[in-house]
Each structure stands twice: as C-alpha cells, then as structure tokens.
Design goal:
The structure is a single chain. The protein is α+β, with helices and mostly antiparallel strands. The protein has a single domain, classed as Deoxyribonuclease I, Chain A (4-Layer Sandwich), CATH 3.60.10. Helix content is 23%, strand content 24%. A hairpin with a 4-residue loop joins strand 6 and strand 7. Helix 3 runs antiparallel to helix 4 and helix 4 packs parallel to helix 6.
C-alpha cells in the first residue's frame, strides 16, 4: 500500500496551480493525507473519482488549517478530532482558541490498522502557542495514538511543525530556541519515539539535506535551505512491513513537499 502526506497550504490554491492532480496521477497513492487544506469539502474543486474523501475543516476560522484523507480503500470508521476523554483530560484551549476545532486531526480505521492525519499547531514566532503545544497538544496527541494502538497498529503522518534533530534542518545552531526547533517541541517527538513509534524516513536515510519545508525568503528552496517537519510514523509492530519512505522535493505548489510511505499492512 502506498500512502502520501502533503501540507498543501491551501488545496484550492495548489489545484489552481495544476500541481496536485498531476502528482497524484504520477505517484498513484492508495491513500493521500492533506494538511492545511484551508477549505471545506464543498469548496474543493479537486475531482478524484477513485477516492473517497474525508474532511475535517476548521469550524471557527474559515479558510484556516484543516485536514483531509482521500482513500481508494473504504475505511471501516472515520474519526474527526480527539475523542471526548482526551479532550476532558487535556482541555485544549488557549488565547488563540480551541485547536480541536481547527480541523487538525482526522483518523480512519481500516481492517488491519488505523491511519491518523495531523496538522500540529505552530508554536508561533513569538512562542505564544508553545505552552499549549508542549503541555497540552503533544501529550494529547500521543495519548490518542497510544489509545488507538491498543486495538490495532497505527500509522500517523502530517506536518508536525518541528524539526526533531540537528540533521533535520540546515542551520540548527542559528535556529536553536526558535519556533519549530525549541527544546520543548523536540521533546514532543522524543516522547513519540520513546513510546515505540518509528520515524520511517530515518529507517532508510541518514544525515542532513533532506527537507520538506522551505521559507519563501532568500531563494531557500532552490538552495535547499530547509527543514524536515513532515513525517510518517508507524507502530513498532509495523516496522518490518515498511518497504520505503521518501521525500518528494520535485513536487511543487506549496511551501512543503509531499512525503510517501510504502508499507505492506496485510495481516498487521
């Protein structure tokens, strides 16, 4: 099974640039996960008849955040946002509002696994959302995927808005403590790894130079001055079933590029 994840930075925008459908036709994923869709389903002009579409759009701010899963395989169930017990425990609100109402998590249950698509809140350049992320969102998200994992293995993907290690961005020293590379944000990924989830890209590729997001400034993408902030993680039990995990920097239309995962999930 082939899966892709892509922060499209506006699904209508990337479609108008004629970048989305050609990439999907080239790669032919069984499941595509999108973040920062910035639209509701009825606003999308994308026509992909081979795929079932499951959207979780922002309920408060229109044209903001949002996630969607497009799948050729019909899921057994679909879940929007965090479940009630997680929300009750973590009380996900700050001065910006309720991130659970921003369409940041959509999950699908299949016969052999769960797939969770996430768009993690940005800590903001002034770090004004770092506390929410570090103390509430990251623990809540990890609790959610661990809860799902009790039933069957989990694949989760998306824009996690953090470079995990010094190899995951071009200039780590210069960005130490900046949003996207604070100790607190990186601890969120540490906790995911400590819980047994596997960063699939690092199963195959080591070192620097492999990025999924580039600033619009200073010709950063052409110079490959970037950050790896988009990930596919899998439950430990799925590790032997992972075939490849790749970054696709030759796909344009967004400030992020897509990533892909090939995995044999039969009998997982």
């Amino acid at each position: 099974m082939k899966l892709i994840s892509w922060n499209v930075n506006g699904i209508r925008s990337i479609h108008r640039k004629n970048q989305l459908v050609p990439f999907l036709e080239k790669v032919k994923p069984d499941i595509a996960c999108f973040q920062e869709t910035k639209a509701e389903e009825h606003q999308s002009e994308v026509d992909l008849p081979d795929y079932e579409e499951y959207w979780h759009s922002s309920s408060g701010k229109k044209g903001y955040a949002g996630t969607a899963i497009f799948t050729k395989v019909k899921p057994e169930a679909v879940f929007l946002g965090f479940p009630a017990d997680i929300l009750k425990k973590y009380k996900l609100k700050d001065g910006y509002g309720d991130p659970n109402g921003e369409g940041r998590v959509v999950a699908t249950e299949f016969k052999d696994f769960f797939l969770v698509n996430v768009y993690t809140p940005n800590a903001k350049p002034d770090l004004s959302r770092l506390k929410l992320r570090h103390k509430l969102w990251d623990p809540a998200f990890l609790a959610y995927v661990k809860q799902l994992e009790k039933k069957k293995p989990v694949i989760f993907c998306g824009d996690l808005n953090v470079a995990h290690t010094y190899d995951d961005l071009t200039h780590p020293e210069a960005n130490e403590g900046e949003h996207g590379f604070t100790k607190e944000e990186r601890e969120g990924i540490d906790a995911i790894v400590e819980a047994g989830f596997i960063d699939t890209f690092r199963m195959f590729t080591e070192g620097k130079g492999h990025y999924t997001w580039w600033s619009h400034f200073s010709n950063a993408r052409a110079r490959n001055v970037g950050w790896r902030i988009d990930y596919f993680f899998v439950s430990k039990s799925l590790r032997p079933k992972v075939k490849t995990a790749k970054i696709h920097p030759d796909a344009f239309g967004s400030d992020h590029c897509p990533i892909s995962l090939d995995i044999d999930v039969r009998g997982a």
